[in-house]
Amino acid sequence: METLQKPLPTDPGRDVRRAWWSLALYVPSFVLAFVVGEGLMSAFGYESGEDVPVWVYAAAGMPACLVFALPLLVTVPLSRHAARAGRRDAWMPVWIGSFVAGIFLLQNLASLALTLLVD
């Protein structure tokens, strides 16, 4: 038996606006990423100013980067829905959110590289 589902009428402009507003989630995700990174570092027995082995830095830094990128889980579906409805500007919030998350990742990798060069 086949059932037909009638799609709910939605406004693609609303989805684009929500996608833009979802980028504001980077503020709490930054705080949460900091808590996760510092929490994992202290769980391994290291403090912020100490010499930290690379594996500890990676084990604390990568989950923090993933937590920081969580707002994309909201932005991407909203943008996809608006793009399917014909909005050509729908992917711009995803590009900007990805750029912000990439800068955060590059900043953490640069910090690791500087730590390795100084030691």
Topology:
Elements: H1 12-22, H2 26-43, H3 54-68, H4 72-84, H5 92-118
Helix pairs in contact: 1-4, 2-3, 3-5, 4-5
Q: Would you give an account of this structure?
A:
It is a single chain. With 119 residues, this protein is mainly alpha-helical. The protein has one domain. It is 71% helix and 0% strand. It contains five helices and no strands. The protein has helices at 12-22, 26-43, 54-68, 72-84, 92-118. Helix 1 (12-22) runs antiparallel to helix 4 (72-84) and helix 3 packs antiparallel against helix 5 (92-118). The chain is elongated. 21% of the residues are buried. The chain crosses the membrane at residues 20-42, 54-78, 90-118. Keywords: Membrane, Transmembrane, Transmembrane helix.
Helix content: over 70%
So how many helices? 5
N/C terminus separation: 68 Å
Which spans have pLDDT < 50 for at least 5 consecutive residues? none
Return Rg in Å. 19 Å
Query: What characterizes the major β-sheet?
Result: none
**Helix and strand sequence:** HHHHH
Global morphology: elongated
Strand content: under 5%
Number-wise, the strands total 0
- Secondary-structure-derived class: mainly alpha
What is the averaged pLDDT score?
89
Tell me the count of domains: 1
